[in-house]
């Protein structure tokens, strides 16, 4: 059964109900492979995301970081054999480029591991996403990027929705006519377990230009 977690960002640690859900879903804790969002940087080591898991009592026997220091072939082996894949937060554009260069999307989709993405990682787990300067991306023009496509929807993660509803609704309106968009701020999560969708925190669904708050179920 597929298990995907699209996370926002957590200034402290996972809320108790999210921690409990992850504890129940991550039964195999032999290894975790973390995919960098700034693969040229040695500082992007997943220490923050790892601290969230540690605080939740989710400890692995082995930890691996996938960036440009890891050969492409070795990265694929890690993805194939790991218990959990965690796409780290940070720069979604750099991570997206790295995923394409290393051809990791197919390997991740074929994996039986639990897949988690935080902020940038959650964005790149989705089918496609809008990279727009109005949404805080450091680009001059707007473009739609293909993500891994673990599920057939788009994600806008870790964005100040509450103060930008009109902007977000207007900017994402064209894409929302093609594909559903889940938009969230900090301390939020969307969990996909098989055919079920669970919501934690303030998550909004944008579809056909209309925005509605999702009922919290997690």
UniProtKB/TrEMBL annotation:
<keyword id="KW-0645">Protease</keyword>
<dbReference type="InterPro" id="IPR029062">
    <property type="entry name" value="Class_I_gatase-like"/>
</dbReference>
<comment type="similarity">
    <text>Belongs to the peptidase S51 family.</text>
</comment>
<dbReference type="Pfam" id="PF03575">
    <property type="entry name" value="Peptidase_S51"/>
</dbReference>
<dbReference type="GO" id="GO:0008236">
    <property type="term" value="F:serine-type peptidase activity"/>
</dbReference>
<keyword id="KW-0378">Hydrolase</keyword>
<dbReference type="InterPro" id="IPR005320">
    <property type="entry name" value="Peptidase_S51"/>
</dbReference>
<dbReference type="GO" id="GO:0006508">
    <property type="term" value="P:proteolysis"/>
</dbReference>
<protein>
    <submittedName>
        <fullName>Cyanophycinase</fullName>
    </submittedName>
</protein>
<keyword id="KW-0720">Serine protease</keyword>
